[in-house]
Amino acid sequence: MIKQTDGIVVGLISGFYDVQTGNQIVRTRARGLFRKNKEKPTVGDHVKIQVDEQGTSYLTEILPRVNLIGRPALANVNHVLLVISAVEPDFSLQLLDRYLTFFSWQKVAVSIYLSKSDLADEAKLAEIKANLSYYAKIGYPIFYQWEELAEKLPSAIEFQQIWTLAGQSGAGKSTLINHLKQDIEQETAAISTSLNRGKHTTRTVQLFPLGEGFLADTPGFSAIDFTPIKINDLCNYFVEFKRASVKCKFRGCQHIKEPKCEVKNLVEKQGITQSRYENYLQMRSEIENGRMPEYLK
Prior knowledge:
This protein has 297 residues and is α/β, with parallel strands linked by helices. It has three domains: 3-62, CATH 2.40.50.140; 68-217, Rossmann fold (3-Layer(aba) Sandwich), CATH 3.40.50.300; 231-296, Probable gtpase engc, domain 3 (Ribonucleotide Reductase Protein R1, domain 1). Helix content is 27%, strand content 26%. Helix 2 crosses helix 8 (274-289). The longest helix has 16 residues, at 122-137. The relative contact order is 0.12.
């Protein structure tokens, strides 16, 4: 008798798909129809699998996705835990804004974790925290200690939700996941001092049970490309710009040269940081040019 059940793809290795069904993980192969239809199951997919009389498991159907982001891809992401390092590599407001804008475009909520704060000197750390206070003010949860994350994260991840770590190479994602789940031993690596960036230590996407859902470690999201974004939509992915725009004189204001623009007014009054506005203009230029700057690749 053939049995059919639903599950979530939690891992992919050598053409096999590990699917979580209830309290067990079933290793399956995908039916040939996926190749024929130019479809490919990915980690995070909600799927149907069937087991034949010989006990062989097959992945037979991919259920509709909420989203599909990253390279390698991760499906149905509910929340991003963005890891930004204080040093090695150095803290960057430009990089932070790129990530936040990208995930806003993808309609995925973000929390921010500052890693390696213990390696920064007192003055540097105070400056970083002052900058991050602005992001807390506009609605992004900020975490400074992994112990606080370890305490709060399991209860924050709801039933079958998928949270993923993201951030620059070498920012400490694998180290953080080691702290969050002690039985996971992800390889960690030293920073390349010549490039001021880390080497990827995570090469595949995998979901780990945490709380009522899953936490993903992924090598993706290291380079953010804005060129697919429509230039007139970009301002809507800066959360405080979107809120302020209701007071702009012109509907669809792009906050550049338009008169009576509330966003520019707030920048002048320091209600919106100058760095956020400048990073917005840089992203517009990137979209206009149709390519990502070489130094950010």
